[in-house]
Amino acid sequence: MRINYRVHVADHGWMRKSSDGKVAGTTGENRRMEAITIRVRGEGVPQGLYVSYQVFARGLGWMDWVSDGAEAGTTGQDRPLEGIRVSLTGSVPPGFHVRYQVHVQDLGWTGWVSDGQTAGTPGENRRIEAIRIRMEPDL
Hints:
mainly beta, 5-stranded antiparallel β-sheet, 53% strand
């Protein structure tokens, strides 16, 4: 079971898929993330397990929650993402969590958050440039 994600970055478009804690997006290039898709895939995924996510886009605020590979954010509208929330929904295996962190303009990597908590700095005019997402059981 793995979590796969893909981001749309200004001047690069849709980037290659990343998974299981690897970086998606760019750091050190001053390029904004504008959209993201996230999916749970692979052997052992319980039927009915989904990943839901919500983004904060500059000028639009918190957008509607989407899930399982749907696009969150915008493309071609010059609206950087400033915040994101990610949550496992449906048939979540006991003790499993989704954890994520973002690379924010002028701040660098934030601490890891989990299960629907806010990552980033929504409303502070600081763009998200990259993200890492992983699923893991309780330690």
